[in-house]
Amino acid sequence: MKKALKWIFISVGAVILLAVLALAAHPLWLGSAVKGVACSAVPQITGTKFAVAGLSVNLYSGALRVNGVELWNPANYDDKHAVTLDTLSVDVDMDTLNSDLIVIKDITIDGVYATYVKADGKYNFDVIAANAEQATASAPQAKEPAAAGEPSPAEAKREVKVVIDRLTIRNVKVKY
């Protein structure tokens, strides 16, 4: 019995230690996990290729960095890409996340290229939007409205405002 109890404590301690290490090291793995999910989910929704060269998330500092985003056009369009993005950088004041006023210190968007082109009588973004609508049509619908006298979930939520201290958008090219 003592031996079994000892192994239980060791096992629980090891799990707690691994959880603490995983949280402490999240900047090393969280971005890769999100990138992997995005690169597999977006093509299923849009019906087009999608790639992200780099993505990092740091929950301690409130930093999000994304680079090398590419969303391809559907088949039969002359332009390879519908949208590309060189870099996106977002810095959030983490102390404000639980307040009614969330402060985003900086958003920088750099190197955007977007095309809005027509092939076979259809614009590329209309085709992508139709693919997304079709892919999400089978998603679960919202629950029934709340019973009389009960506040709806939307009413029960507090109102949160967002302030962006600095927004920088540069090197944008659009083809129509």
General description of the model:
This protein has 176 residues and is of the alpha/beta class. 35% of the residues lie in helices and 36% in strands. The strands form two sheets. Strands 1, 2, 3, 4, 7 and 8 form a six-stranded mixed beta sheet that branches. The longest helix is centred in the N-terminal third of the chain and has 23 residues, at 2-24. The radius of gyration is 22 Å and the shape is globular. The model has no long low-confidence stretch (mean pLDDT 81).
Strand fraction: 35-45%
- Average residue-wise pLDDT: 81
Number of helices: 4
Distance between the termini: 75 Å
N-to-C SSE series? HHEEEEEEHHEE
- Globally, the shape reads globular
Helix content: 25-40%
Biggest pleated-sheet summary: 6 strands, mixed
Secondary structure: number of strands: 8
Rg computed from alpha carbons, rounded to a whole number of angstroms = 22 Å
Given helix and strand content, the structural type is alpha/beta
Give the secondary structure arrangement, pairings included.
Elements (H helix, E strand, L loop, with lengths): L1 H23 L1 H21 L3 E9 L4 E10 L8 E12 L8 E15 L2 E2 L2 E2 H13 L16 H4 L4 E4 L2 E9 L1
Parallel strand pairs: 4-7, 4-8
Antiparallel strand pairs: 1-2, 2-3, 3-4, 5-6
